[in-house]
Records
---
Amino acid sequence: MARYEILDGETVINTIIADATFVEAHHPGAYRLVPEPEPAPFTWGQAGPEYQWIEVGSFYDRFGPAKIPVLASADATVQALVRDTQVRKYIDLARPDVQQFIQYLGTVVPEVTPEVQATVLDPKTVDDERFEKGLPQPIEEP
Amino acid sequence: MSNISSFLGGRGVSIQPTTRAFLRSGVFTALRDGVVRLTAVGAGASGGWAKSTMGINSGVNAGATGGSGPGYVPGVIFQVRRGDKWVVTLGAPGAGASGAAYFGDGNNGGDTTIVGPGIDVTVQGGRGGRAGQAPYQSLLQVPGVPGGIVLGCYGIQGGASGDISIEAAESGGVSGGGAVNLYDLEAQHIRSGSVYVDLGASGGASPGGGSADIDAGGARVSGGGGSGGPSVGTQGGPGTSSALEFLNAPGDLFRVLSSGLPGSTSVDGLSAGPGAGAASGGVVAGRATGTRLLSGSSSAFSGSGGAFNSSTSGSLSAASGASAFGGSSGGALFGRLVTSTTVSSGDGGPALVIIEEF
């Protein structure tokens, strides 16, 4: 159902719900269609927590060239944490213990630089990475 | 109001009316000589919106009221002749309002008109909520808006939205949306609550009762009105306690549809998601925690609550819920001037016209 402004000259005297046939029949030449407002953009600020749930494989892919050094690390704590993450359905990037894990990796695996850490913990995910598929992709804040 | 049987002159006669419901504009053509009954609910309005520039001992405060309820024609009898044509034009609901800086009124619901031989009726939509600002620690006054009226036949004025009136305001307040006055309540019993203290948000009004005022010493939010009565403090109003036994007109059915749904309880804390209820409650987010803030949507004929977010970090938005048939949305306010904030009022509810031909 369209929204039309009824005009008296250039003055809008009413706004109605009608179809084109009705408005032309009863207000010939004295109306204009009100464009439907653009839906508000969906931004990262509005994204829910499920946007930070990423699949385990995707989580390790975020390490890039540092992935193998992490998985091959002889550090007992790293091995335990890797095993722990691998039995999870997904990794929640917002969890403090995940962030602590990444920070710890930075102290024992030289390839996990601050830039790599930032990449791994980047809360802006894409559909291929996310545990929940088919979510609308947010945009940057205007 | 006239009883249909007095026109038909008989007892125990069961007549199935031919009924047309208009959800968009159209033409009604009488099928025979006789009488018709007109029931009409005007279009709801949207609330005002504002951003205050509150800081520490600086800036201005702001307020925004909800939109008011539209006019209502509660089943009025008209005589018609076969072939009479009435042009039924449905007013559009007031679209939700928002903007960048710094405050703005809501949008009126359009007028609904029924025009033809023997009839020229206008059902005003609800009036858009107002918004305004005042210097820090000054009197902030934003008057609520009166409800839409009916011209050309018997009708009932919609419920008003509450005032914002805060002495030495440091931040501001918002009031909830107005309702359709299905029960022909006195004006003071169906308006949304007025706000007299900083950081106050009143709930939406319901056909069964308004929402509570926000006064000094009480909570900073009030619940939405219920179909069975007004809200009390933060609690939503009660639902209708018993089903109506007699349904003589669409207006009676409206009351049943709006019964049993207490207004949603307001949340004075982090956030409130969309809620159910005859009318939704007001919501306020405290200063320390940022989050998206949305007062619940309201069900048919009821207003949605005001939304007031004064967070300083987080997702930073404030929005009042949309309304269903005839309801109007509450005001929306962001309490601190922060870039990238989003403040918007919800859409008003659509109009509805029912014509029964006997």
---
Amino acid sequence: MILPFNHRARMARRIAAYHTGDLNPAACEAVSRHLAACPHCSEELRGLEETDRLLRGAAPRVASLPPDTSRALFARALDESGVLRRRTRGGWQLYAWATPAVLVLLGGGLAVRELCRPDPLPAKRLAVGTPAKRPAPPDPLATRTKPEPVVRQERRVPRLKARTTTPARKRLAQASAPRRVLPRPEVVELLPSTPLEWIPEPQMAPGVERVELMADVEPGAPVSEESGARLARRSAPSPVVSVEVTMGESEPAGTARVAAWWREPSGEWFWKQARVPRDDKQVELVLVSLSRERIWGYWKEETE
Amino acid sequence: METAFCMPWLQRRTRPEEAWVAAARLSEPWALERFYTSYRDLVYSLCFRLTGSSEDAEDATQATFIRAFRDLPRFRGDSSLKTWVYRIALNEALGLRRKQRDLLELTETSADVGDAAASVVEGVAVRSALERLSEEHRIVLVLQFWEGLSGPEIAEVLGISLPAVKMRLHRARAEFRKSYEGAV
């Protein structure tokens, strides 16, 4: 039987839908009955099944990325995406730019508010001034010339005192005060003479894929709990899951001991430690090690 | 002065998937690594199948993750993370492929090497037939048959409706059959 082209195309679509299971049960039953009686459509269905078999069977086998390549790809992607640099900027450099802008806006707003506010002071100050020194009103020329400096002198001193004591004036004065700009953190390389140690860390529980480590800063330490937590959670680069810094009597003067922990693909936990130089003004370690060859210390100057 | 960040082995907890996805959107390095290890093989596989060489696949994989790391903060969760990553990988792999179209050569295998090689010959013929298809038909077949994506997933990756995916698959099959039968 020769079917019209439109009918054949429609049947081909129905058979394709039947093949992919997109027909409702009633339509499916109807197509099944039709297939039993129509060799042309049966051939169409077999062709679809054969196509699927060919395509599935020809899928290229893809080997996994070698571990070294995978790590290198990740490191390059992390580096080139700039997310770590963006995070560092967001940490404090962003504030270094944003703070002056906010202060200028705040100061400007307050200044405009002060200028637009009606000033009740002149009348009040004139009232509390000494009436005996005020010129007599009969001579209009005398009121314009002679007494005016005396009245200004009387007004100026209390007016300044009164305004500097208002909270708005205080904030304005603080805003216009010279600001302390945070220095850019410098990368402090390891002391070249310090040997690095690779020691398996037995305290980590095997089987723990990822752990979240909470920084716990000693009471009275100049680093806040937030900055300690930021150190552990955000600043540690990806292979490093934990950072510890020790500065004090147990360490030689002018140095700090930095240790970083991570987990190798083999599942073994490792830690690496080294001494880095420091001085007493630098109290906060921000970042340790992306490369496993070296440990880097980023130091941030203590701020008031 | 003593400042010690005591890394507390006592206070630790494993992270559920939602936590690392949210953290990855905030560009937390540990979460980005988790994201990378979760999708590395999928991305590399798709890139390899679209580019045809391991070197190009590595380049496309790297480009995919660079873009993904940058764009993760803007990922709003409208689609699944998997299809979002697939979409980026697809664009990167196709971009690379367009640049290096000349380099893609399929290995010709002689047909008289025995029964064991029959499937290899068939595979080469199928891949040759796929190469002759239009790009949109080849992509939809690769996603369906090689990557094993469902219809709705393909729709998300390609940014088209589900009926459009079905129609495109239907036409791609027909075009593939013509191409394959013509070659054989």
